[in-house]
Each structure stands twice: as structure tokens, then as C-alpha cells.
Amino acid sequence: MRRFAELCENVPGTLQELRSLYIDLFEAGLPQPRCPLLESAWLLNRPAGDVVLENKLFYRNFGLEIHSQAAPDHLLTQLEFLAWLDHCLAAGNPDAASLERARAEFLQRHLAHWIRPLANLARNADGACYADLLDALSLEIESAG
Predict the structure, then answer these.
(1) Is a pLDDT exceeding 90 seen at residue 26?
(2) What's the whole-number average pLDDT of the chain?
(3) Cα 74–chain centre separation
């Protein structure tokens, strides 16, 4: 918890409180959580199936195999894909230009439009350290675009 507190302000005092806050913000709620981590929950102009399929195609085209139970449009899966692209670049993949284009296009098509609203919603929902992390992620995405 101490290392986490070095990164963020407003960190709960215990791991159990941190877990409870995560569940309250990102998992509990009907018909969806207060701060959904699925890209499809933020798009009103595209069918969810199209969003999921497009994410899957990105992953498949660049060699990332995701767990069959993982939601392709979940923020954690999307961040895993970006980490995979970074890994491929760091490993000296000969098609670096293609990987860099894919990274930029993926950020623009799948993260740029919903991470700032998610961060704002988490901040308004008293998301504490999670709002801080989402703010930092949003700034990183904005600076990459």
C-alpha cells in the first residue's frame, strides 16, 4: 500500500478498503457499474458487438492471444494490447513502423474517446486513487495523440 500511496493521493488505508472501492466503482451495479471499464459502455453510436470485434481483430492481427474469458473491450485488455505492442517494438520487431501506426490508431479508435470521461466520472464518484490513475492515463493518451 505504501508504494501505491507514493503514486497517488487519497489511497485508502488498507488493501481491503482499496478492493472495496474498486468493486464499488468498477464492478457493482445494475445494469452496469458506476464507472464501467468496457469501451462498449461508452459508445452510443456503435453496436457493442462491432466494438468487441474490432478490438479482437487488432489483437489477432498483431499476435496477442487473450484469455477466452477476457472482455476484448475491457480497459485492462486494451492496456495489455498496448503493452504487447511496446514489447514487440522493444524486442526489435523489423516492422516497427507498422507497430507504431497500429499503436497510434488503436489509441485513437479505442481509448481516446472514453478514458477522459471515465476519469471524470471516477473523480465525481469519489474514486480517490483510481480517479488519480485514470487522470494520469488520460493525460498519457492525450499526449500520444
Answers:
(1) yes
(2) 92
(3) 6
pLDDT over 80 at 25, yes or no: yes
Closest CA to 87 of 62, 55, 54, 107: 62
Rounded Cα gap, residues 59 and 12, in angstroms = 35
Residue 15, amino acid: L
